[in-house]
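Task 17 of the worksheet. Students: predict the tertiary structure of the chain below and write it out as structure tokens. Keep your answer in the requested format; marks are given for formatting as well as content.
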Amino acid sequence: MKKILLIGFLLITAQASFAQGLFKRLSFGLKAGGNYSNFTDAGFDTEGLAGFHGGAIINFRLTNKWSIQEEFLYSTQGAKMKDNLFGETDLKLSYMSVPILLKYHSNIGLYAEVGAQANMLIEDAKNTAFEDFADKVDAGAVAGLGYQFRAGPVKGLGVGARYYHGFMEVGKFKSSSIKGDFKNSVAQLSVFYIF
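Model answer:
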């Protein structure tokens, strides 16, 4: 019986120290910034639309140089119309964006990131004469570069630039004059702080 209790105690202690080690690798943060978005492969003339993003960061450090980062962002995207197809209006879309990134950190604070992103539509474009303009789900690839302070009074503060390219067709509407097979593309510039 003593052996069973000793083995049980050792297992509980090992699990607790393992969980504590995992928790030390986790960090959390906040980020916000500007977007410049457009539609690629659209059958109508568009130009870029300014927007913004903001939300929370969860980072899990694998080694001193590698980490996995997940973000939960509110992001405005879309495009400006250059012709009168939908009327003179901006096609603004609001998404909940969830990128999952593999990040490489250099010793001097520079980092590179690459990964996948899923977007869930929160608010559709208005004034388009379509009840549903955009599909509810969008997904694509992201890549970016940035700098994060690794020491000093501003340790954890950083800036980053990222590009998102959608792989899914955005348009959900039915029209005989145009196709909805255009895709989202977004350039982002962010400021973030990881605690």
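Marker's comment: Strands lie at 26-40, 46-47, 49-61, 66-81, 90-105, 110-123, 137-148, 157-166, 183-194. The first strand starts at residue 26 and ends at 40.
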